[in-house]
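Continuing the series of single-chain predictions for the mutant panel. This is the parent chain; the variants come on the following pages.
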Amino acid sequence: MIQQTIPTWQVSDWKGELAGAVTSARELLLRLDLADSPLAGRVLGATDFPVRVPVPYLSRMRRGDPDDPLLRQVLPLAEEERSTPGFDTDPLQESRHNPVPGVVHKYRGRLLLVVSPACAINCRYCFRRHFPYRENTLGKREWRQALDYIAGDNSIREVILSGGDPLATGDEHLRWLVDAIAGIPHVERLRVHTRLPVVIPGRIDERCLAWLTGTRLRPVMVLHINHGNEIDNDVAAMAARLRQKDVVLLNQAVLLRGVNDSAEALESLSEKLFAAGILPYYLHLMDPVAGAGHFDIPEKEALRLYAALQARVSGYLLPKLVREIPGAAAKSQVGHRGL
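Parent structure:
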């Protein structure tokens, strides 16, 4: 009898991999043979936004390369202590759009639920690195208040699960929540914004697929992949699993200094996304969050990079270059009047 080989991502203990994440910059550098490199001298010591890197993601980094684009996204450097004009702790002014705990409602027709304060990985440029998660961590009573808010606004057609990372929450709670959302007649789509399946592809297992695709809601998953090296065979298999269940797969990336700030890197990202069945959706200018100014790329430079990318790829491989402007009715397309 021929024994079928099951890809490791299908049988992975994602909770174990989450718990076993590397939480020390020194250990991270040791594993990458960089402990004695000049890069080690630039590492930030104590920080209220600690290191967190699961091993499946770490395994895609290049050993001995201080400029590895995946490492740069997660390694805390002394540059984070540098004050950058215009960068603050609430760059999108989300506190103004937090009508009830757990809800961020900025745009007509859709709102965001902060499902979990936790993430699988701590990205150093995260625009919510200072978000008041304690005030937005909900019990059953607060969840009912959030659901009542959705039910009371007939304009809401789409509910977005976010965080933190919503998939850091257990499947039992997510099934309860999605079933409750599906019970609100005017909601048509469920959108999940997540990085966890990229970091730990085994997160997309049968239990996850059951609640994601088990209601009348049209499921959309927006992944967060910034560099083509983040897409390995396990990530491609994870994406295939979702596509088999008719989940729409989109990607949003952030344009980051030292990570993907070349036409070649952006082209490779689009090509690898499409090969994995993921549509390039948004390329964001970085939100000006305190501690991340060293990643910033000015708009003029971003437009030059975008023009170079446009000359290299087919139109369907070209993500929209956007930024979020607090108070705007939607994301604003850079170089255009708006979306």
